[in-house]
Amino acid sequence: MDQQTLANRLKAAREKVGLSVVEAARRLGYTSYQTLSNIEKGERKVKASELNLFARVYFCSLDSFLDEAFQGKTMVLLWRKAPESDARKELESAITYRCEQYRSLERLLGHESTGDPKFFDLRINDISTPGKIDSLAGNTWRLLELGSRPALTLKNILEQAYGVKFIYQPLASISSAASTVHPDFGPVIVINSDEAPWRRNYDLAHELFHLITWKIVPAEELSGDYLTEIEKKADRFASALLLPEAEVRKAMDKVMENQKTLSYADVVDIARDFGVSMVALLYRLSAIGCIEWETAKKLAGDETLVRLDKKKRIDDWGDRPVSDRFHSLAVKCLRKGLLSRGKFAEIVGIDRSEIDLFIEAEGLMETEGAPIEIMAPRC
What we know:
Helix content is 54%, strand content 5%. The protein is mostly helical. Among the domains are: 72 residues, 434 Repressor (Amino-terminal Domain); 119 residues, Arc Repressor Mutant, subunit A; 68 residues. A four-stranded mixed sheet has the order 1-3-4-2. A hairpin with a 3-residue loop joins β3 and β4. It is globular and about 80 Å long. The relative contact order is 0.09. The mean pLDDT is 88.
């Protein structure tokens, strides 16, 4: 490859991630932005060791720079709250790169692309009313066999049975979640790893609605009032999915066997049991006719109830979430010799010296072990 072609690709990669020449040079470790400027003009050669650094800073693979058929991949992400322009570019580049790594691991292991997830064959009329949204949530609950506490099983079922790729990003207050159905990567859900677990559960269910309705509600068409209306439908779907009416009533009946009313502590305990926020439970109780809307709204802002909720949940945060399937695929590639230890460490974001401890902590066996002969089935 000639020097100018590489220079053009490096510049395109920087612009795609939304970094200025000055900021990119700082992240690359150059003392002057002029060094990077000269590289992008083709006036300075790039060392092989520098290319690895460019790949990390620009969230892309070396192939993106070296492949003659290079084309920047684009991914249409439907954000729940779209980040600002520059932050969005960098985030979407990081997410796309993670999806590329994920898909590469699948290919190494011979896994077919999941493509379009097969949930339901829907028409726009199927989500036209609140009742139909509730019906879709119920059908989804039955299809996925989520059990009595859907929030506790939803992620694993989507990840393992439907190949949904979960990308956890520390978004702070930038956004909460996003989703897409990509022709190569398949279904993807992006979750804010800074959020509380119960909030992540709700965001997951909300984004599942977008995956299920991706064909009938294209992300490119969502804006203004139409986007607002679809987001309300996604919220209702999430509430109905995570808090099935029959299970909620059963939980309430159990608590109220020897009492006539629910206490504040009961409300918090039921919400924790279902893995949702106290506010989500209150609004769901209103939706199924257990309490008045105004009562739910008033309780949601009750300072005493809010303080009790925070106090009871103080130990519920747990560890920062990760994609279990991504880690599992990476370990399988490592132990089959499809991935070097250095590449493995880079993909999972650890130092090479931490590999064995990482695998042990994840509870994943490092070696393949002895072969087991499988007998052919008898006719």
